[in-house]
User: What shape does this take?
Amino acid sequence: MTIKNIQSKPLIRWAGSKRKLLPILVANTPEVFERYIEPFCGSACLFFELKPAKAILSDINTDLINALKAIQANPYIREQLIKIENCESEYYRIRLLDPSTLSNKNRAIRFLYLNRYCFNGVYRTNLSGKFNVPRGKNTGSFPAAEIFEKASHSLQNAELKVSDYSVILSELRAGDFVYIDPPYSKSGRFTGEYGVGSFNSNDLPKFIESLKALDKREVKFLFSYRACEDVSEALDGLFNVQILSVKRHISGFKKKWGESQEILVKNYG
Assistant: This one.
């Protein structure tokens, strides 16, 4: 199955976002569930599409969750963002600011500004946790005020947490629906993408056991990941596994754009 691009401007730009897969993700969402959970929320595009009545959005990225909390509390935060000049000198001045010295509000503004104007929506840090992504080109402006307001309204139904995915999964119960979209790491070494402590291929064996535990507790899950032999073999025969083709261009160079295969795994009909 091949997924075509869809046109919608995201509130938060995120490398690896599932906007292109939204039609398929929505079609594969269970009809009935009591609570929606995303332990690797990123741009939370499926959450914003589904608008569940009760949700938990979680990530280990403190700045991301803080920014979502700021939007949740203030639907008009865009007015402050658009007052900041979009230029190279301002980008690198703001990037140099130590987020730990800022108020939660200013920390959120810093994150949202850098996220909008950085290269390809990439979140990457060095080993010290300092954001080091260069300024991008043709990033566009911030989404319309209406998008911020609608996002703030949807977030009123969400509990926002900074947490490791394993903690969130261990707390889920029957009646929950969890969408799991971890970073697609091809090696266990630190690359800086998604920050210090982010999910990588070394976590896969433990993660697969977590999926089995969720199934035993009657928690419905939908899991998306790059199509790789070890994961496919471990899950095939246990759960419903689909192979998808989706266009990817995280590298930012057109000659490297193309279709890649991903898997979509669920434990319900």
Summary: The longest strand covers residues 240-248. The longest helix spans residues 104-117. The domain at 12-60+163-268 is CATH 3.40.50.150 (Rossmann fold). The CA atoms of residues 60 and 198 lie 7 Å apart.
